[in-house]
Amino acid sequence: MTGDLQTEMAKNDxxxxxxxxxAYHVVPENRGRDVVxxxxxxxxxxxxFLAAEAPRAVIGVDCGVGPGGAxxxxxxxxxxxxxxxxxxxxxTVELGNGVxxxxxxxxxxxxxxxxxxxVEPGMAVSLAARLMLDNDPAAPSASQVTxxxxxxxxxxxxxxxxxxxxxxxxxxxxxxxxxxxxxxGRSAVPYxxxxxxxxxxxxxxxxxxxxxxxxxxxxxxxxxxAGATVDxxxxxxxDGLSSYRDGIIxxxxxxxxxxxxxxxxxxxxxxxxxxxRARD
Length: 280
Known about the structure:
Blueprint: E1 6-12, E2 15-20, E3 35-41, H1 44-53, E4 57-61, H2 74-79, E5 85-88, H3 98-104, E6 107-110, H4 112-116, H5 125-134, E7 149-153, E8 159-162, E9 177-183, H6 189-195, E10 199-203, H7 215-221, E11 227-230, H8 240-246, E12 249-252, H9 254-258, H10 267-275
Parallel strand pairs: 2-3, 3-4, 4-5, 8-9, 9-10, 10-11
Antiparallel strand pairs: 1-2, 5-6, 7-8, 11-12
């Protein structure tokens, strides 16, 4: 037992895993060494208190995520500090019981630093906590966190590649379909023209006045680029994998429509059609 507020669940020469009933039970002794498994939501407010004591890592509860992701927004607050953080599915735990969270919780969301430690959604909290204790996150620069991933290959052999921004496109993407997660306003045009992907899908940024979040579709079409946008209300901006997995098409330029891309179509299907289109 650590005082009356924390229960020691595991220990090694790097530190401890401690369970507590609230994020507000983090203590100075946790600084830089302990994984704090706390049965609070992981919004920005509790994340501030956790960050102030700077433990090695934290695990909280998703509390249903909530409007605007408020119940898990602390994951990204802590990610900005390069602190590993994760949350458990609220339906797998007894709220306000840190020991139960450690023993029975199942991870639902993780930040980049936690993923670096090997933590994944669907994992037991007890295992996730040990991975956080045993491993350190990387310390990449902002430009290195691209989350680039090949997610599919069309029948044409062209790759469908996710990355979080069109700014992270590579020269080889001239032969790929890029699925990204920034808006498709006029500021995206230089990046699209520089990379000149075989096809692209970005976010509509919520639309914007006069459809400005999709303005680049028509502009880059003049240079032969086929592209479409997904609904920012459904696919998380800044997360290319979400654009691909959750995206629903809200706009497409003439070249994309000629390839069979339609409003209301899933991004997965639209990406396949762009990959398999015949270039004029």
